[in-house]
Amino acid sequence: MAKLQISGVSKVFATTRAVDDITLSVGDGELVCLLGPSGSGKSTLLRMIGGFERPTEGSISIDGEEVMHLPPERRPTGMVFQSHALWSHMNVFGNIAFGLKLRRLPRAEIEEKVNEVLSLVGLSGFGARRPHQLSGGQQQRVALARSLVLRPKILLLDEPFASLDQHLRERLREEVRDIQQRVGITTLFVTHGQDEALSISDRIVVMRDGRVEQVDRPDMVYRQPRTPFVAGFIGTMNLIEGEVAAGRMKAGGMDVEVPIADGPAMLAVRPEFLSLARSEGPEGATAHRVVDYGTHLMVDIELADGTRLKAMTQPNAGWTAGDRLRLMPREIAVYRNGLVAHRATLSS
Amino acid sequence: MADAVSARPRADVAGIAFATVLTIVIIFPLLVVCTWAFANVWRFPSVIPQQFGLRYWHDTLARADVWNALWISIRLSVTVTLLSAVICLPAAYAFARLDFPFRNVLFFSFLAAHAFPKFGLLVAIAAIFLQLHLIGTFWGVVLIQLVGTLLFMIWIPVSAFQAVDRRMEEAARDVGARPLRVFWSITLPQAGPTIAAAVLLSFVSTFYETEGAWLIGAPAISTTPVLMISFINNQPVIQYGAVLSMILWIPSLVALLFARRVIGSGAFARGFGA
Q: Which of A79, A81, A102 is closest, CB to CB, to B177?
């Protein structure tokens, strides 16, 4: 169990600022996801914690001890790579035992620890196999075992499931979460998959262009995104530009009360918080396409100016393409200057 | 309705013909040399020798200069290959992994020895060696043959080191290995098959090298190929040259078999880019 403290860390590659002044605390046994699109700096940040990149400025400490001066082999961290990075000239046992051998542990103890961790990741009896004889999921478990066997203070997972298929990814992330909670290891998990982040993390750090956009619990990141970027990146969000005038905002065929100063703003409504009613008038919105997902209908709405919105309704709502619609938001957020300016739950 | 698909694959006539021609082109000269080596008497117009036997093997192997040349060739090849590995492998690693001034110019300079007529280069080097009193010495020949191995021992290992996944090395450091240990335990085994191919090429090319060995080594240092050329030029009996040719096949054959056994044929083929 360990605490990680990142303070004002930046990384500049030539002229590119890959990570820009990030400060973050990760608590004992916490699993924190670094979530963001490609190029947002999340992997660079992870590599700086692991010692594979040197920060241009800032400091990183583990359990209050500065680790910036330490090379990767002396840091109390364990990293699992996206490509598994298993050593193909060694078998599974050799891969996991390598770090233990470097620590000159007795052979019996090495065997005991390797067998124990193989059992933990569900690969008992696989020690003699070569990496190429394993499936992608098994290879990733070996990579995880290789890190866990050394009992690092901080576990770093760099998009560990990116090369696996969707089904396997879902299964493995649950397993990793279980193992992480059983071992109680402080974990940083890099992903660009919002489902992954929402499903397993204690907290999510949403990153963009090397900066932190929001750090929060998964439910809060989804329900109360702090910036339009987070709103658009996590889940599906209808974002409509408009004007606030005299305490009201008209946007996307909706007219809502917004008690902020007059001026341009952005209205945000989740599809599940957008109710639909039939409209008889010539103005308004049209159902462009209706997709039945079984559990719900997703109505693709086209506004008069060509703007597209989405609404999620009950599967038996009976909407069809071409229906004329009236839009009634139940929960809104209004953004101005890149930050949330107003949130409200509206009565229908 | 779909047409019935024949279960028997069609014979690739062109491919078989090409393979046959290629086999004949490679095998036929070897067969001729082999036949000459075991022919006690073979006079025109007979298609096969009038008498087979080991007479010329006895004659050739009884000569002290043959054993001396063979011993020199083996010592030279082993020395040059080892020296080349010691000098070139760290250099190849540096070229593959480090960025330094004039890296590309230096890297391409190793092609220079093979980009121009070799004999001109050898004569120029011989002039320098003459002043350094290296002409006619073992180490003079070692140095000249080192030049010939640079291409194999730099270019091929560079591509081998570049092909090693950096994440594997990082994973090793992550579990506690220092850079030297990472190189020894991860990088080298991963690049091993390709490097072994380069070492083998280096050994074989050194063993068969004649121009440098003759220009720098003669007359004191006579390697087996140089001796074979003198046999062919100076002896009216073809069998001496044929026997020596067959003797020359043995080291490369042994090296190839050894490499296949130790490294594994699949990995070895990958080393050559297959």
A: A102
